[in-house]
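Posting this for the archive.
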Amino acid sequence: MSYETITNAAQLDALCQRMASADRIGFDTEFVSEDTFRPELCLVQVIVGEQMSVIDPQLVEDLTPFWQALADGGHTTIVHAAREEINFSLTAIGRPPANIFDTQLASAFCSTEYPASYSAVVTRFLSVNLAKGEQRTDWRRRPLSPEQIGYALEDVRHLFKLHDKIAGRIERLGRTAWLQQETREFVDEVVAARSRERWRKVSGSGSLGPRNLAIVRELWRWRQEEAERRDSPPKRVLRDDLIVELAKRRTADPDKIRALRGMQYGSLKRSIPAIAERVQRGLDASLDDLKSRGHAKPPPQLNLLGQFLGPAINSICRGESMAASLVGTATDVRDLIAYRLGYAAPDGEPPTLAGGWRADLVGNLIDDLLAGRKSIRIADPRSEHPLAIDAINR
């Protein structure tokens, strides 16, 4: 497997010049995320034309020219499961790579599995089986062996062929615009997630009242700030269960906080004054944005309707060679039913299945079923797709 190794700025500049004139660029990264606040970039693999390259971030101190070359120009950027790659670009230059074609996302528009691993997509579309011998590699260690480099390069060697195969199939199915819309929304979501406060994801906080949640929010914010300062995973700074217990106790007394089991050790013990101050903020905070919004409670038959329609939607997606897990979840189906029947929050966003390509594929169909304009029947119980949708003539 022929490739070049980029270990200095001059070599990186030469690669970027080739990238500037390319019509498509494939790339992938190897990173380690368990010990730092943000994933640590350890290796970048690139394919431009027939040339594969490996960039060593431990030797090339400034990768800014590379990320700028990816973000500029009219080329297509081909990558698999691009979330972290987009984040690396946003951290470096504040922009994502240009014209992303995510092979994981794209494959969902012409096959039934999502999310699918790179090796699964390569096998499905190219009938190639990839080696799996270096999946547990610590990419921070040097030197990397030829086997490790070879394994890493497999993640870009097939990207152009995958692009040709998947893009061609999507175009024949008339779903190119669907993929473009979903890709834009995916990139926008990755950008938005960098500043989104995810304190409601604290495990065990779902049943807490407004005042307790105000404390959870303040402790989550402190944990994020402290984790970034230390360059440490947030849950190593303060565990979720301790956040929830502190919120339940609703006390800013340092002695009472110190008495909580798990708070007596190392840096956490030294942080008790700061933690107490954040608990107090939660105790003093306004609860206007934490109180439940009043709207009609969904009736029990809503779950029954969702359970009935869910398998039908899955059958439709399989028949259309679409990944049902990308189209929508059982919750998305129930949200659309609730929305159409008037049980959604009056100031809430329209549900996922009510707009865009998802409405074209299944959302409008659910509307027709709810309105009695169409019906579901068993067409052939022996068929892989046993259900049929029929229009009702009135």
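The first strand starts at residue 4 and ends at 6. The chain has 18 helices and eight strands.
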